[in-house]
UniProtKB/TrEMBL annotation:
Source organism per UniProt: Pararobbsia silviterrae
Positions of transmembrane segments: 21-40, 60-79, 91-114, 120-143, 176-195, 225-242, 248-267, 279-298, 304-323
InterPro entries: ABC_transp_permease
Subcellular location: Cell membrane
Keywords annotated in UniProt: Cell inner membrane, Cell membrane, Membrane, Transmembrane, Transmembrane helix, Transport
The name this protein goes by in its record: ABC transporter permease
Principal location listed in the UniProt entry: membrane
Membrane topology classification: Multi-pass membrane protein
A Pfam cross-reference name: BPD_transp_2
Keyword Transport: yes
Domain of life assignment: Bacteria
UniProt key word Transport: yes
């Protein structure tokens, strides 16, 4: 057999091994395109400028920011069930500081500090007391829920006082809405840290091979603690944007983002060659979930059936991904 024929024979199995992986990575984009085409054909208002603008600004923005933080928590081998608590504490601090006469910059700094405090509490539980991320963040969620109810008189909203105006939600820079620019900025920072930064490499090492990371000299507890503070900071940014949009603090509103953030993060892993959480994949997962919810709303489906349909699609995508990757 000639050398050329040997090379061809050797290359053929390699191509066959790579084929399932290619389909595995195309699953989410293919389903996303199919969903967009379906809704475009079934409802005339889906592709209108007004609907797409509302989808991006009212739905995509907040979930994208929260999910970006969730991505690094999952990449570190954990999960953060308390992102809603960090968002709510940020929103509360932001509105209270503005109502107390402080400017936007000071209120924003206070909001970020309040959100980071929730992350620091998780850091102590996980890095200091060595609780599992699931139990630690679940405990923070319960504590945060009780604290909010106590501070808000049982869950009453706190509205921005008359005369205090926030222009963040409607502001534009270069014709682009500022909330979308905030999404791009948060995603860029976290994406670079995760993909290129030294901390990102340590985080992934701790998440994928904790024993190896430990014996390599990495300070795993410190990395885990910083990870949950960073996750909470992203949620705190979302809290500022949310408060700026509704001009109020609504207790426990952040909990609505937790499950979808987890779902978007795991959908995003299907776009990675190695199955790792990644920012670009997570953002596509967020867009996918919002498009499905928006389209089902437009065709008149009940809210509960919307949740069922979204869950079924997530299961289908993850199942296809698992089957495809297991064959490689």
């Amino acid at each position: 057999m000639s050398a050329d024929m040997s090379d061809t024979a050797a290359a053929s199995p390699a191509r066959e091994r790579r084929a399932p992986l290619a389909w595995h990575r195309l699953a989410v984009p293919a389903v996303f395109i199919a969903v967009v085409v379906f809704f475009a054909l079934t409802t005339p208002t889906f592709l209108t400028v007004a609907n797409l603008t509302s989808l991006l600004l009212n739905n995509f923005t907040l979930l994208a920011i929260v999910s970006t933080g969730m991505t690094i928590a999952v990449a570190a081998g954990g999960i953060d069930l308390s992102v809603g608590t960090a968002l709510d504490f940020s929103s509360l601090a932001f509105i209270v500081l503005l109502n107390s006469g402080f400017g936007f910059a000071t209120a924003s700094a206070g909001a970020l500090a309040a959100g980071a405090a929730a992350g620091a509490f998780n850091a102590v539980l996980i890095g200091g007391l060595r609780l599992t991320p699931f139990l630690a963040t679940l405990g923070t969620l319960f504590v945060g829920t009780s604290v909010q109810q106590l501070l808000s008189g049982g869950g009453l909203p706190i509205y921005l006082i008359p005369g205090v105006h926030i222009g963040l939600a409607s502001a534009k820079l270069g014709g682009i809405p500022v909330p979308l620019l905030i999404v791009a900025g948060v995603a860029a920072v976290y994406g670079l840290v995760l993909a290129r930064g030294r901390f990102g490499r340590a985080l992934i090492a701790v998440g994928e091979q904790p024993a190896v990371a430990y014996y390599s000299g990495l300070r795993a507890r410190r990395v885990s603690g910083l990870t949950y503070i960073a996750c909470a900071l992203a949620a705190a940014v979302a809290g500022i944007v949310l408060s700026s949009t509704v001009s109020a603090y609504v207790p426990l509103s952040g909990n609505a983002f937790m499950l979808n953030a987890i779902g978007a993060t795991f959908i995003g892993t299907t776009l990675s060659r190695t199955g790792r959480p990644n920012i670009v994949g997570t953002l596509l997962g967020v867009l996918f979930l919002n498009v499905v919810a928006n389209g089902l709303l437009l065709i008149g489906w009940n809210f509960y059936w919307q949740q069922v349909s979204t869950g079924v699609l997530i299961f289908a995508i993850l199942a296809f991904s698992f089957v495809s990757s297991s064959r490689t």
